[in-house]
Design goal:
The chain is α/β, with parallel strands linked by helices. The protein has a single domain, classed as 3-Layer(aba) Sandwich (Rossmann fold), CATH 3.40.50.720. The chain has six helices and six strands. A six-stranded parallel sheet has the order 3-2-1-4-5-6, sandwiched between helices. Strand 1, helix 1 and strand 2 form a beta-alpha-beta unit. The chain is globular, with a radius of gyration of 17 Å. 32% of the residues are buried.
């Protein structure tokens, strides 16, 4: 599988390393060259591209033309949404996922057909589930 990831922070790098270790062809883009040294290990065999992830030339250099998956995982919701839409509508990547921190933006972009993941919503939901389980346990006398 050919995967292009935008954002070489903790999430993007961890995903790149995991997919690379599974034998996938991975390119990762970040505007900060230091991010690659900070977050990728020496055994990463993929391609690291320095550039802005909404620049079509940068996306082409990363191999988005033939990619199966594009993941936008920067810490900027608007950049992730724009890059995701470019991947969908210009490069016709079959699977596009964009990280959204803002739950409002998450719902907005889902409504226009972008697949998103919102760590804010996922985290709050998981904490609530843990609290509910604790309360049920307390009510049951445990």
């Amino acid at each position: 599988m050919r995967v292009v990831i935008l954002g070489c922070g903790r999430v993007g790098a961890r995903l790149a390393l995991a997919l690379d270790a599974e034998g996938h062809e991975v390119s990762i883009i970040d505007r900060n060259p230091d991010a690659f040294r900070r977050f990728l290990t020496e055994d990463f065999k993929g391609q690291a591209i320095v550039g802005v992830g909404i620049d079509e030339d940068v996306l082409r250099r990363a191999g988005l033309d033939g990619a199966d998956v594009f993941v936008a995982a920067t810490n900027l919701d608007n950049v992730n949404a724009m890059a995701g839409q470019i991947a969908q509508h210009i490069f016709h990547v079959p699977k596009v996922i964009a990280r959204m921190y803002d739950p409002f933006r998450d719902e907005l972009y889902k409504a226009v057909g972008l697949t998103t993941v919102c760590p804010t919503t996922v985290g709050a939901r998981r904490i609530k589930e843990m609290l509910d389980a604790r309360w049920r346990q307390a009510e049951a006398g445990g």
